């Protein structure tokens, strides 16, 4: 089943997508609420409205599928790491620590955008980039979960928009990414429940989904989700170690390889321009759907003030 959040005539509603239409759920129902009710209850609620009227998808604005309480983004594709290390830090290869355990950062849940929203260039950035990912939505609360205890409610497409010049500066300080990543994250077009994608699972527990990204109609990258270093259940398990994950938390796979972002290709010597206003970035994930965003000019802000030199005075 495909759950979506949408805006129509100023009202925000949740619904079930079927073909070219969306069947509205009751006004007090949200997708986050459905996730927290559990997959069986959510499927029952969705099935109850499928026989009712629908609204054509071309009449609504698709919002992020749910109001995510937290968003973690992993770096689970080895090929992506190889290319981006060269581009962002000037190094080469994959550090041994990457293989030891999954690595993630928390990104900004207030910066989520819908599947077809415009995306402004972050203030001060001249090296704007996309990142093709899939996100899993946690299905139930848990702490220090084993992988076989993890419940995933569903999956959606994620574009982790990245200001590479800001990211490079931050990571030289051994912190971040922060402002290099938190201006925009696209989620969409809807949330596909986990049962819909089980037929794609391979013998090692990975989802063998085709991922593709194009800029202005030219394909830039293609990979398989099954090239991740860990399946999503292990990512959720790691995120829960010594703490909690909650139903509705969003966990990104990290950028796929083979052109999943421009920075990877820059690191491999490909001379491709960064994104600029007017560029259209389209991502399609097999079994989930397509998101398409147009880059637009961002706000112009004054330069950031540099730090003052360290004071030398010790005593008054």
TrEMBL record:
Residues 1-65 form the Rv2993c-like N-terminal domain. InterPro entries: Fumarylacetoacetase-like_C (IPR011234), Fumarylacetoacetase_C_sf (IPR036663), Rv2993c-like_N (IPR018833). Keywords: Hydrolase. Residues 71-296 form the Fumarylacetoacetase-like C-terminal domain. It comes from the Bacteria. One of its GO terms (molecular function) is hydrolase activity. The keyword Hydrolase applies. Coiled coil: none annotated. This is Fumarylacetoacetate hydrolase family protein. It comes from Amycolatopsis tucumanensis.
